[in-house]
Design a protein that fits this description.
CATH class of the largest domain: Alpha Beta
Structural class: alpha/beta
Largest sheet: 6 strands, parallel
Bound molecules: magnesium ion
CATH topology of the largest domain: Rossmann fold
Distance between the termini: 39 Å
Radius of gyration: 19 Å
Order of helices and strands: HEEEHEHEHEHHEHEEEHEHEHEHEH
Number of domains: 2
Strand content: 15-25%
Strand order of the largest sheet: 5-4-1-12-13-14
Number of strands: 14
Length: 296
């Protein structure tokens, strides 16, 4: 993208989506709990907010509920409100409600998965009774961050799928950036295994799905072309931007490098590559006016 086109696109941005792990912070565990803030991240959040743009932070982790993630990020000095946090579990709950209303759903994961299903009053199958042999009649199996998924749960899930339930998964990212070592993904591992034993495909509802983008756009209250997506993963964030017409920026403090971006296929290529959130702040500052009067 040439400099004039980039300036024009940046000036048109009304909503910004930040990835969490590898973009705003580096932590040792999933879902942005704890960790350390990456340079420029606090300033980036403040710049977006003070320039009157809407913002969202969107992790593909489903281990924690949005308010828990927001609380953790605030504890690290990032000015994030509860309603600004999106997870694939939020997308899953909203999608399941639209597709299946009050039909029974088998949901695997902890509080991060169940919080939004409960909030919406969805008909989630009692797992203890299902594990005891009670028929589930589930129309969908939704796989999230379930570190206790063993043989018994696999049996229940597979029986539901073989009886006609669809398989959904929060994220099938193999890994995500962390402070000290590569963190492996759990939900994709389970979904791939369930798909293997049932010979039925699964559908991802987290980034970069169309469902995730639709809910992001609704939350930000702007059109897809007015959205800027910044993250450290070409497959999760840059492809979501590419598919939707949003402006896509890769920050190279996590999973993917500038060289990865250079050789990426067209459907994953970012519009811009920055080496830090500090560089992102410099870029966005060029087209940003504060919308609130400065204190004198
Ligand atoms: Mg990331």
């Amino acid at each position: 993208m040439n400099p004039e086109e980039l300036t024009r696109r940046l000036a048109a941005v009304r909503g910004v989506m930040f990835d969490i792990d590898g973009c705003l912070i580096l932590s040792d565990g999933p879902s942005g709990l704890g960790g350390s803030v990456l340079p420029g991240a606090r300033e980036a959040i403040d710049l977006v907010r003070n320039s009157g743009r809407n913002l969202a932070v969107f992790t593909n982790g489903s281990g924690q509920a949005p308010h828990q993630i927001a609380d953790s990020l605030r504890g690290l000095g990032l000015d994030i409100r509860d309603h600004e946090v999106l997870t694939p579990a939020v997308v899953a709950a909203e999608t399941m409600q639209a597709l299946y209303q009050q039909q029974p759903l088998l949901v695997f994961g902890g509080i991060g998965m169940h919080h939004d299903f409960q909030k919406r009053g969805l008909n989630v199958v009692d797992l203890d009774r299902a594990l005891a042999g009670e028929p589930t009649n589930a129309v969908a199996v939704v796989i999230g961050w379930d570190t206790d998924f063993g043989r018994d749960k696999l049996q229940v899930a597979a029986e539901a799928v073989l009886a006609g339930a669809e398989i959904y998964c929060t994220s099938d990212a193999p890994s995500f950036a962390s402070g000290h070592r590569l963190n492996v993904g759990v939900s994709g591992f389970i979904a791939a295994g369930l798909s293997h034993v049932t010979r039925c495909p699964y559908r991802v509802l987290g980034k970069p799905s169309a469902e995730a983008m639709e809910i992001l756009v609704q939350r930000l209250g702007v059109s897809a072309e007015q959205v800027l997506i910044i993250g450290d993963d070409l497959i999760l964030e840059c492809s979501m931007a590419r598919a939707s017409g949003a402006l896509g920026i890769l920050v190279t403090t996590g999973t993917n490098s500038a060289a990865d971006a250079e050789f990426a296929p067209a459907d994953r290529k970012p519009d811009v590559v920055v080496d830090s959130m500090t560089e992102f702040v410099e870029l966005l500052s060029l087209v940003s006016e504060p919308s609130v009067p400065r204190a004198v």
